[in-house]
Every structure is written in C-alpha cells, then in structure tokens.
Amino acid sequence: MAEQAIRDSPGLLRNQRVDGQVPLPKEGETNVMITSALPYCNNMPHLGNIIGSTLSADVFSRYVCTKNRNTIYICGTDEYGTATERQAMKEGKTPQELCSHYWKVHKDTYDWFELDFDHFGRTSTPLHTDITQEVFLNLRKNDLLERKETLQLYCEQDQKFLADRFAEGTCPYCSYP
C-alpha cells in the first residue's frame, strides 16, 4: 500500500518514456547524459562488465530520472582493438563478424539483467564514426591535441604496427626484447 502511495506522489518518480523513444535535450531543463565504460565486443559478457560499469551507471540513471531530470543513458560495445582482432583470428571470423555476434549476446545479457539503456550502440556504426571524427576535428581546430612520438613494433611482412600483445620473445633481426 505504501508503495502505491509513493508511486502516486507527484514529481517523485520519473515520467515513463515510450519504448524506443530516445530523449532529446530540452531547452531550459537540466539535461543529463550518462554512459559507462564500453565493454569490448570480443567475448561473452561477464559480471565485471555489469558490476564494474554498466550496473552502476544504470542505477545512477534511474536515480536521476526519479528527480524528473531529462536523462539519457547510452552505452554500447567497443568493437576496436587488439583483443577483438586476436579473438576474430582465433574464431576464424572477420572482426566485423565476431562483433556482430557478440554485440547481440551483450545486448541480450543486459536486457536479461534489465539494464535500462536508452540506446545501446556499436562503435563500428557510421554514425559513431561521424561523431568521433567531428569530436576529433573540433579538438584539432581548437588546438587541444598534443603530438607525441612513441616507439612501436612494426611487422615488415604485414606492413602494419603491432600491439605489444602480438609480440613475444626477442626480435630475430635486432635482438630487441
């Protein structure tokens, strides 16, 4: 009975959104965007993905919504990186095939845990690429990037730089460890 009274209290619990409708910023209101660390999309989701990032962001999002603040909770899978490339090679798939499979597994798992994302996306989509490039160009235009030189392993045969995860042992040419 008390629960019903709380739910009927005006301004206490968030106004329910229509499924599939992503909230947009509203002029003159407090607009809150929440996200969490994007899990790599190279294997099965695990409790670390949930407890370590997405669950706490979900709880915070729900709390902010109880204050009737215009809130959007976005997340998705990180589909780039050495771990994804290595797992794709291990499974005999392209990185895109691997990520398409595991994105669905991640999404289904988070849905099972009832995490309430307004949008659960992928870093490989054209929209994400456009947004990322726009952020980069704005940073560059405003002189907020810093150029640094670093040493990185390079494979002459494949003609590409290698992440340290690919390198084992000593270089047969120069004996670099």
| Radius of gyration using CA atoms only | 22 Å
E-strand count: 5
Low-confidence stretches: 1-6
User: Strand sequence of the main sheet, in spatial order?
Assistant: 1-2-3
Largest sheet: 3 strands, parallel
Structural class: alpha/beta
Averaging pLDDT over every residue, what do you get?
Answer: 85
State the distance separating the first and last CA atoms.
69 Å
The helix fraction, in percent, is: 40-55%
* Topology as a string of helices (H) and strands (E): HEHEHHEHEE
The shape is globular
Give a structural overview.
The structure is a single chain. This protein has helices at 2-8, 47-66, 82-91, 95-112, 126-141; strands spanning 31-34, 70-77, 119-122, 153-155, 160-162. With 177 residues, the chain is an alpha/beta fold. The longest helix is centred in the first third of the chain and has 20 residues, at 47-66. It is globular and about 65 Å long.
